[in-house]
C-alpha cells in the first residue's frame, strides 16, 4: 500500500491511499485502502489518515474514522488518538500495520505496530525526513 | 505552514534481506514522493493536489505496492484499488478490482470529481476511467520480477503447508 496525507497553507486536509494487498490474495478481495473511513479519511475539523496493514481488521474497526472520532469527541490529541487505535485497538486483534495522519494544526503521526513502515514527512522547513524500521527519521536537505 | 506525510506500506522486508543499496533505494523513493507533494504545497497548492502528486510518484515506483508494484492475486493477476478524500467537504472517490490505469489514484479522483458516486468497481469502473481520459498501461507495465517471485514463493509455501512469516508479503 502507498498513501499520503497533507495539510495545506489554508488549513485544509486531504488523504489518498492506493492499492494495498497481500501477495496471492484471493481474487476479488478488497482491503482497507479504498474503503472510506477504514484506510482513508479526511475531514478539516479533525484529521486526515491513510492506513496500511491487515485490511480486514482496519475495515472492521473503521480505523481512520475511529482516529478522527477520538479527536472530535474524546478530546484526544493526534498522537494519543493514533496510538490508541493502532497500538491499543488494532494490534491486540491481529491488525498489524500502521497509519500516517495529520491534524488541523499540522501535527503529524507516523505510527505502526509491526517491524516497520516505509514512511516520510516534510513540513514548511523543506527538510525531507524518511525512515523504514523502528528508527529515527533521517533528514535530507 | 504545511505538512505532508507519506507511507510506502507497513510490514517492511526482513532486516536480514535488506542491503545498503536496497535501503538507499527505499529512502530515495520516499523522498521523491515527499518532494512531489512539497513542491505543490510550497507553491500555495491544495492538500488534495499534494496527496495526489505524492501518491502518483509512489505508484510509479516498483519498490512499493501500488500501481506498478501491485501484488498478484492467487490467480496470477493484479487488481488495483485506491481512494482519495478531501477534508474541505468530505468529497471522496474510490475504485477497486481493476487493472489498467497507470495511476489508480487518478481513477479514484475522477470518481470524486466527475461522478455522483463515491465507489466504483470492476468493468464499469474501467469504462468510467476510459470515458474520463485516464491513462492506461498494458499488463506488462505492471509486471515486476520481485512481485512475481513473491507470488511463486507464497504459492509454493501454501502447497507445502508452510506458514509465511514475512510481513512484506502479507502487507505488500
Give a brief outline of the structure.
The complex is a heterodimer of chains A (141) and B (172). Chain A is of the alpha+beta class and 141 residues long. Chain A contains three helices and nine strands; from the N terminus they run ββββαααβββββ.
Provide tags for this entry.
heterodimer; A: 141 residues; alpha+beta; 4-stranded antiparallel β-sheet; 3-stranded antiparallel β-sheet; 9 strands; globular; B: 172 residues; 3-stranded mixed β-sheet; 6 helices; 4 strands
Structure write-up:
The complex is a heterodimer of chains A (141) and B (172). Chain A has 141 residues and is of the alpha+beta class. Helices cover 21% and strands 36% of the residues of chain A. In chain A, α2 (63-73) packs across α3. The relative contact order of chain A is 0.15. The model of chain A has no long low-confidence stretch (mean pLDDT 96). In chain B, strands 2-3-4 form a three-stranded mixed beta sheet. With 172 residues, chain B is of the alpha+beta class. Chain B is built from six helices and four strands; from the N terminus they run βααββαβααα. In chain B, α1 (20-42) packs antiparallel against α2 (47-59). At the A-B interface, β1, β2, β3, β4 and β5 of A face β1, α1, α2, β2 and β3 of B. β1 of chain A pairs antiparallel with β1 of chain B.
Distance between the termini of chain A: 26 Å
Radius of gyration of chain A: 14 Å
Q: Give the rounded overall mean pLDDT of chain B.
A: 93
Strand element count of chain B: 4
Quaternary organisation of the protein chains: heterodimer
How much of the residues of chain B is beta strand, in percent?
15-25%
Radius of gyration of chain B from CA coordinates: 17 Å
Number of helices, where a helix is a run of at least 4 consecutive DSSP H or I residues of chain A? 3
Strand order of the largest sheet of chain A: 3-4-5-6
- Largest beta-sheet characterization of chain B: 3 strands, mixed
Low-confidence stretches of chain B: none
Describe the global form of chain B. globular
Q: Percent range for helical residues of chain A?
A: 10-25%
Q: Enumerate how many helices of chain B there are, as a single number.
A: 6
Amino acid at each position: 500500500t502507498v498513501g499520503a496525507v497533507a495539510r495545506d497553507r489554508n488549513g485544509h486536509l486531504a488523504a489518498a491511499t492506493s492499492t494495498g494487498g497481500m501477495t496471492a490474495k484471493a481474487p476479488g478481495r478488497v482491503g482497507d485502502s479504498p474503503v472510506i473511513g477504514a484506510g482513508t479519511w479526511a475531514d478539516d475539523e479533525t484529521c486526515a489518515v491513510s492506513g496500511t496493514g491487515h485490511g480486514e481488521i482496519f475495515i472492521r474497526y473503521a480505523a481512520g474514522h475511529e482516529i478522527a472520532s477520538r479527536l472530535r469527541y474524546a478530546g484526544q490529541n493526534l498522537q494519543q488518538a493514533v496510538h490508541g487505535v493502532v497500538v491499543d485497538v488494532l494490534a491486540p486483534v491481529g491488525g498489524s500495520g500502521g497509519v500516517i495522519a495529520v491534524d488541523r494544526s499540522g501535527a503529524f503521526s507516523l505510527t505502526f505496530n509491526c517491524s516497520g513502515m516505509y514512511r516520510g514527512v516534510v513540513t514548511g522547513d523543506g527538510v525531507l525526513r524518511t525512515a523504514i524500521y523502528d528508527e529515527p527519521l533521517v533528514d535530507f536537505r | 505552514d504545511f505538512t505532508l506525510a507519506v507511507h510506502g506500506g507497513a510490514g517492511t522486508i526482513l532486516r536480514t534481506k535488506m542491503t545498503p543499496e536496497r535501503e538507499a533505494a527505499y529512502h530515495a523513493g520516499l523522498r521523491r514522493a515527499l518532494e512531489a507533494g512539497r513542491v505543490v504545497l510550497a507553491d500555495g497548492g491544495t492538500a488534495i493536489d499534494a496527496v495526489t502528486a505524492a501518491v502518483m510518484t509512489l505508484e510509479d515506483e516498483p519498490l512499493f505496492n501500488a500501481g506498478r508494484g501491485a501484488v498478484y492475486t492467487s490467480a496470477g493477476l493484479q487488481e488495483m484499488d485506491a481512494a482519495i478524500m478531501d477534508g474541505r467537504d468530505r468529497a471522496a472517490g474510490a475504485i477497486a478490482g481493476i487493472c489498467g490505469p497507470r495511476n489508480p489514484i487518478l481513477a479514484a479522483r475522477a470518481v470524486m470529481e466527475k461522478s455522483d458516486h463515491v465507489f466504483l468497481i470492476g468493468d464499469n469502473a474501467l469504462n468510467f476511467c476510459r470515458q474520463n481520459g485516464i491513462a492506461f498501461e498494458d499488463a506488462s507495465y505492471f509486471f515486476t520480477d520481485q512481485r512475481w517471485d513473491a507470488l511463486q514463493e507464497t504459492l509454493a509455501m501454501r502447497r507445502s503447508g508452510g506458514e509465511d512469516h514475512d510481513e512484506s508479503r502479507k502487507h505488500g
